[in-house]
Amino acid sequence: MPTIVVDVMPKAELLDPQGKAVTGAFARLGVDAFSGVRIGKRFELTVEGEVSDEVLAEASRVAAEVLSNSVIEDVVGIEVVE
Amino acid sequence: MPTIVVDVMPKAELLDPQGKAVTGAFARLGVDAFSGVRIGKRFELTVEGEVSDEVLAEASRVAAEVLSNSVIEDVVGIEVVE
Fold it and tell me: What positions belong to coiled-coil segments (chains A, B) (predicted)?
């Protein structure tokens, strides 16, 4: 079955406390390859049948209105897989 | 600066209560294009400089050992962007 993946990240200008916590954990663990971590969400929407233009438009709409909070988050990707 | 994106999803055989809640919200809102929703995490790791094989190997290691809980989650993707 096709799946639409929607990626949502905290806005770049906002602090991301979860990401900061992981960055701190990396420092304590001696992991120095990464200078920063930001943590967002990945939604997998299962589609029965075909991914038509209407279904994609509906995915864009729910990504903006239901799956993300536009005050603090950006939808960074909408992609069909499989 | 290059970024390594790590995608982590709840294992397929586990219930995903957050995803179920969104599926229920879709039903109440009259959104019928999607038969299911699963919610995972998207990590963006910032790399200073070049993404060498060592850095990618380190990303795989922290994805498995730090960013995910292998009892309940799968790392479904590790990808370099930019």
Answer: none
